[in-house]
Amino acid sequence: MARSFAQMARTAEQVNRGVQVPKVAMDNPPFPIHKLGDQVLRKPAKRISKVDESVRELARAMLRTMYSAKGIGLAAPQVGVHKQLLVIDLEPDNEAAAPMVLINPEITSFGAAIDTYEEGCLSIPGVYLDVVRPSVVEVTFRDEMGRPQKLQADGLLARCIQHEMDHLNGVLFVDRVSDELSLNEELKEQGFDRAAVRTIR
Ligand code: K2U
Ligand code: ZN
User: Which residues does residue 26 pair with via DSSP β-bridges, in sequence order?
Assistant: First the structure.
């Protein structure tokens, strides 16, 4: 049965809009963000087998939670959902820019160059420390409509993708900080338990 123009227009609108939500801070965000020390953050996320409306609804709720916390990225384990789903929006002040939804992301290659960048994390508020990571990454993923995507990222996007993908594997940026003194100092200042860090290398 042929679809009416209105039905086609609605589908097109739905496809284009994907999971866009207003980029505003809410009084009661959909999810609490779990903090360093909570074992929820250390449990690896499972692959998503089917990208359906429930996955898009989860992405919308994560975006509302991320905008409310003034973040530019958020991974599902941070809100206690162990699914391989992350959202990124590098332009949180631009309503016209669509956020990114990465489902079952995999980094297929790292560039040779490395960068140092002062990272923060919505799960470790008040702690900002330098982390060294590759400058460029190539990543494959499914988007919010389940379409396979491949992306080469550099700059802040490459940094954010790596930070969020670590969350999917139960890794936190503080695990990658090499400056022990600053790490101990900042964690103590913010009241976090140093034992909650699982130093890599
Ligand atoms: O906790 C999170 O995963 C959100 C992270 C994402 C991020 C971490 C390091 C570098 C880039 C992104 C941040 O807390 S979002 C806060 C923020 C805002 C602007 C620039 C950098 C970080
Ligand atoms: Zn984080």
Answer: none
106 flagged as catalytic: no
Alpha-carbon separation of residue 126 from 58, 131, 174, 186 (angstroms): 27, 16, 12, 8
79: Cβ below 6 Å to ligand 1?
no
Q: Which CATH superfamily is domain 2-109+137-170 in?
A: Peptide deformylase (3.90.45.10)
What is the residue with the minimal CA distance to atom 6 of ligand 1?
73
With b for 16 or more beta-carbon neighbours within 10 A and e for fewer, the 175-194 pattern comes to bbbeeeeebeebbeeeebee
Dist. CA 119 → ligand 1 center (Å): 7
Q: What percent of the chain has pLDDT over 70?
A: 94
Which residue of 118, 162, 163, 174 sits with most ligand 1 atoms within 8 Å of its CB, as the best mutation to test the pocket? Answer: 163
Q: What pTM was estimated for this model as a whole?
A: 0.92
pLDDT the model gives residue 2? 75
pLDDT at position 4? 78
What residues have CB less than 8 Å from 167, skipping those under 6 apart?
A: 41, 45, 75, 76, 77, 78, 86, 123
Domain residue spans of the chain: 2-109+137-170
Average pLDDT score over residue span 33-62: 98
